[in-house]
Write a structure and sequence with these properties.
Structural class: alpha+beta
Order of helices and strands: EEHHEEEEE
Strand content: 35-45%
Number of domains: 1
Oligomer: single chain
Largest sheet: 7 strands, mixed
Length: about 100
């Protein structure tokens, strides 16, 4: 079975990040409907974030941030395979979470 991708892009940290249609539907239907129509912004956030932090709860999870108006878009990615990661969720937030800084532009 082939996964239907919305995007698969390279991260500044050197791995690929993908977002599938099924994951995107789950995010905008059940978790964060405010993101509907913002697929392009998620892609840009992963390709060219202003900041990437390691989650304080799980060091394998990375949080990508980019400004969006008065808030930040946060895209949460987690390992899928050794060299690949996937978008777990994404949301708009006023606060940047604590965690080790992995990359900044």
């Amino acid at each position: 079975m082939t996964r239907r991708l919305i995007f698969q892009v390279s991260s500044p940290l050197g791995y690929c990040v993908s977002l599938t249609r099924d994951r995107w539907r789950e995010i905008i239907r059940y978790k964060h409907p405010a993101l509907a129509g913002h697929e392009r912004l998620l892609r840009i956030c992963v390709e060219s974030p202003k900041l990437i932090r390691q989650s304080a709860k799980d060091p394998n999870v990375h949080l990508y941030y980019t400004p969006s108006g008065r808030v930040h878009l946060c895209v949460v990615v987690a390992p899928e395979r050794k060299e690949d990661r996937f978008v777990v969720t994404a949301y708009f937030t006023k606060n940047i979470k604590k965690g080790a800084e992995l990359w900044t532009s």
